[in-house]
Amino acid sequence: MFKKVLIANRGEIALRVLRACKELGIGTVTVHSTADADAMHVRLADQSVCIGPPPSQDSYLNIHEILAACEITGADAIHPGYGFLSENAKFADILEAHNITFIGPSADHIRIMGDKIEAKKTAIKLGIPVVPGSEGEITSEDDAKRIGAEIGYPVIIKAASGGGGRGMKVANNESEITNAFHTARSEAGSAFGDSSVYIEKYLGKPRHIEVQVFGDGKGGGVHLGERDCSLQRRHQKIWEEATSPVIDDAARKKIGNICAKAVQGLGYSGAGTVEFLYEDGEFYFIEMNTRLQVEHPVTEMITRIDLVNEQLHVASGAGLSVTQDEITFTGHAIECRINAENPDTFVPCPGTISHFHVPGGLAVRVDSGVYQGYKIPPYYDSLIGKLIVHGRDRAECLMRLRRALDEFVVDGIETTLPLFRDLVSNEDMQTGEYNIHWLEKYLEEKNRAR
Q1: 393 with 49: CB under 8 angstroms?
Q2: Residue 213, CB half-sphere, CA atoms under 13 Å: how many?
Q3: Long-range contacts of 251-258, Cβ-Cβ distance < 8 Å, separation of 24 or more
Q4: What is the CATH number of the domain that holds 72?
């Protein structure tokens, strides 16, 4: 096992990794910008190093400073968390050259899955079902129109690199192809420095289902069930649950085994998530994230497996601690992402938290790096915490979530807590009858009613 792990991240995920390391007796080093000098991950670490000013490119994305922090502290491994450098193949290569373990997959696997076109080709080779569309990059309007006619409209043109909804444009018919093609290329080039795009069939009312996988890097691999991440705004997840309300045991086993065999075939190491659109009983691969996900706690709640602990074991060469037969799914879990944002406009709301009280009780978990008196900086993601609850079934889980949301107090700034208090009592949310477009329609109707 590692002697000392440097956590190259901030906020709640830095604390999450720090706690796992401490439980295993591993020394911890955190890095921080000047804006995060008073952050909780800085306060609780064994050692902490300031790596630059507030802008991410000068601190949390500054590879040179992070390497220097490793040298100063003697850290022999780096956990990247999610975001920032977690899916940066160059970073993984540099760490390997410096004999520092990257707690994640190989740089080659990061590159393959970071390129949406190569990821799709790889998925096909591995037997993963994919959305009908182009086999690779499309370079002209004519390509897009030809494929659109073959697979049928509507279609979506997507950036080959990146994500988060940028570089994605829908064309409902051939006349909309020209604008969609050029707009997607332009956005992709501006956001990711790569204007490559591809085209796929656009599904009307799909769910967003993702399968948690783990590989040992030696041909072994398992799945830990699925998560339903269909409640989204502008392609950003805000509510996740496990297991999905629309997936039965047979479908779960089938798609899980496909994904487990895929990571075995890749020789993949560490945590990964295979993401799908799901419609009319069919799964369609969209991408694979080669890191820990924000929503990983719901999987931990239903499996009772510590995913960060598992990452540390695999990266140290100890292999997987569980076999597929030992993994079981108990009850239901839901996570709400609490952001420092106006609940109606979603405008970020940095500022000082004057009062902070988290809910408690049986099967209630809050992952957060903030505290009363903490000043939320304006430079980073607006996530301030995650509320995760577990129940014996979905009905009990929803009741517990409603109670926990009522207990949650954050004063001094605006947060999205009021939105979740509305959603938890909504009939469609109660029945689980929602898809990736549901939330935006709900918000539109809510705004029109004002």
Answers
A1: no
A2: 33
A3: 251/281, 252/225, 252/226, 252/329, 255/209, 255/211, 255/226, 255/283, 256/211, 256/223, 256/225, 256/226, 257/223, 258/127, 258/128, 258/129
A4: 3.40.50.20
Rg of the chain over Cα atoms, rounded to whole angstroms, equals 21
Q: Which has the closest alpha carbon to 383: 11, 8, 79?
A: 11
Structure-block tokens of residue 426: 């909504």
249 and 185 belong to one structural domain:
no
Identify the domain boundary among 201, 222, 245: 201
Asked if residue 76 is part of any domain, the answer here is yes
373: left (phi over 0), alpha (psi -120 to 50) or beta: left
Of 227, 291, 337, 365, the catalytic one is 291
**Residues with Cβ within 8 Å of residue 65, at least 6 apart in sequence:** 31, 51, 52, 59
Residues 194, 201, 437, 281: is their CA dihedral positive or negative? negative
Does the pTM surpass 0.70? The reply is yes
Number of other CB atoms surrounding residue 267 within 10 Å:
17
- Of the candidates 381, 394, 412, the one whose C-alpha atom is nearest the C-alpha of residue 11 is 381
pLDDT > 90: percent of the chain: 93
Domain encompassing residue 74:
4-89
Can you point out the beta strands (E) in 39-151?
47-52, 77-79, 101-102
Give tens-digit pLDDT for 151-160.
999 999 999 8
Count of domains forming the chain: 3
Mean local confidence (pLDDT), 255-276: 98
Residue 188 and residue 138 share a domain: yes
Residues 322 and 428 occupy one common structural domain: yes
Residue 336, token pair as written in the block: 């709400």
- Give the Å distances, CA to CA, from 70 to 37, 59, 100, 291, 419: 18, 14, 8, 21, 41
- Residue 322 inside a domain? The answer is yes
| pLDDT band with cut points at 50, 70 and 90 for residue 163 | low
Residue listed under structure tokens 């000068």: 58
Report the CATH number that the domain containing residue 323 is assigned in CATH: 3.30.470.20
Same domain, 227 and 356: yes
Distance CA 335, CA 120 (A): 29
- Asked, for residue 307, whether it belongs to a domain, the answer is yes
Residues 213 and 163 reside in one and the same domain: no
Residue 115 lies in a domain: no
207 is an active site residue:
no
